[in-house]
Amino acid sequence: MFSDKSCVNATLISGTKETCSFFIFEAAIHWAEEGHRVIYIAPKALQSPPLTHHDRSNPSTEAFKLMRFMYLPNYETLVEQLVDLHSFASLPNVLLVDDLDNYIEDPGVKDKREVHIARLCAILLDTMNACAVILKQNVHICVSISSECEKIYQLYFDKLWKIEEEDDGNIVKVKQVAACNAANKTYEYRKYGSENIILKQILYSQN
Length: 207
Known about the structure:
This protein has a 10-stranded mixed sheet. Helix 4 packs parallel to helix 6. The protein has helices spanning about 5, 15-35, 60-65, 75-85, 100-105, 115-135; strands spanning about 10-15, 40, 50-55, 65-70, 95, 140-145, 160-165, 170-175, 185-190, 195-205. A hairpin with a 3-residue loop joins strand 9 (about 185-190) and strand 10 (about 195-205). The model has no long low-confidence stretch (mean pLDDT about 90). The protein contains 6 helices and 10 strands. The protein has a single domain (about 5-160), classed as Rossmann fold. By secondary structure, the protein is α/β, with parallel strands linked by helices.
């Protein structure tokens, strides 16, 4: 039997909206190419990927069949889908949510911000935990925010990554936020032109 702690791998990425959208979209393609069934949720349709990874070919037809895109404009529509997700005919083992801030900052929600964040994160984890139990396998959640990564998120996400941009956005560093005395990993990318991004190096450091 799976437990809440062991079966849901939860990752949070913080950074600018455009760059986070790129990494969430790339994650969707990566997981689908690995044979995972993916649900990608965003407030609005992504007209075209903001960037293209230099060493990735176009997704295969098989990968696209494993991806389901859901464009949910507000908190209410998001929760409606999440509570029913475990009853879908094809259950996902990867859930990606781009721009979680859109749902956190929904003007229709009257709760205090921290309470609202806690409730939404709990719903996300409960949703995927239900899928994990039915599928009898570990599942993954990855969400992105463009606001500051508040401490409340650390209660729900076991992996935190912060995106920093330098040199007028031409250098993108994806930094792992690790616990005290733990090793940090940083992926350093460089943008070429307005469409291409290349991984230049992986750095390791100790807190």
